[in-house]
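User: I'm new to structure prediction. If I give you an amino acid sequence, what do you actually give back? Let's try with this one:
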Amino acid sequence: MQRLQLQNLVYSLIVLLFASCKSYQLAEAKPVQSSEKTVENLYFSSGEDYVYKCQMDIYKNHVSGILIIKKLNETTHRVAMTSDFGNKLIDFEISENDFKLNYVLPDLDKKMVISFLRNDFRELLKRKYPVNESFENDNSKIYLSRNDHKAYYLFFNKENGLLKEIVYTKNNKEKIDFTFEAKKHIFADSLNLQHKDFKINIKLFQITETEQN
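Assistant: Good question. You get back a string of structure tokens that encode the predicted 3D arrangement of the chain. For your 213 residues, that looks like this:
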């Protein structure tokens, strides 16, 4: 059953190449002056293991397992995922500029799958964002960070200062929406990664007890 699910996932990723995406517009927010020069996503900045229950939905295909994210140094994280039955699916090390694949299950060893995971986790684990413009709405302070043809909108809760959403765009097209639930700056209790051009959704739910204490 697990093998069939993985084969269906690979097939669906190939089909997704034909999907389209729409332009992103920041709604109901006004420009403001801000002294912030850089903002950060600190949710994966601790040296402790981040352990999550992971659910991936690719169109009608569903794969679940355990995902572990480990910060190796200031630039690199290690990401490993096992199935619900404890079988290793993939293990890689990733930074903004480098990617090292330590292991991948043969069923997942496809260029499309590796590229999808590499790109998504590179964006998720990106930490520092130079601020180009600042905005706010009733609930959030919003910082726009541009990098060539990419742009990131980071939404911080006004009440507690926690990062609650990152919208990643490319060529002004909305690509991925990351939403977070958290009680601490260094640890997200849950994460929802939603592609806007593909029907891909990744949900993470914390199971790291020590991070809550």
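You can read the tokens as a compact description of the fold. Here is one thing that stands out. The mean pLDDT is 87.
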